[in-house]
Structure of HicB-like antitoxin of toxin-antitoxin system domain-containing protein:
Amino acid sequence: MKTLNDYMAMSYRMEIVEDKDEGGFVVSYPDLPGCITCGETVESAVANALDAKKAWLEAALEDGVEIHEPDSLEDYSGQFKLRIPRSLHRSLAEHSQREGISMNQYCVYLLSRNDAVFSK
């Protein structure tokens, strides 16, 4: 059975979001449901997050709550197949050619740009 120190040593993904309404920053750990805190600055929010992570893990261990290990990028290949209409394929090919990059690079650019929009 893993100990508190074992879990604290694991690299849980931390999400930091600026709170535009209240000010400061909100930090959460997606793999630790309900583990959330905040701080006036990014630095204080991260420090508070480490304290919150420790308190969350202590409580989970004490209460016998299942603790999931962090999601790993090793679980993802970075590749997927996608079927698209021929007209969209042509449009993507034309746009990427105008930009002087491969269609793969152009699609990664479009996906990352839109992912940034949806992450807000």
Remarks:
- The helical segments are 4-9, 42-63, 86-99, 103-118.
- The beta strands are 15-18, 25-28, 36-39.
- The chain has two domains: 4-63, 77-118.
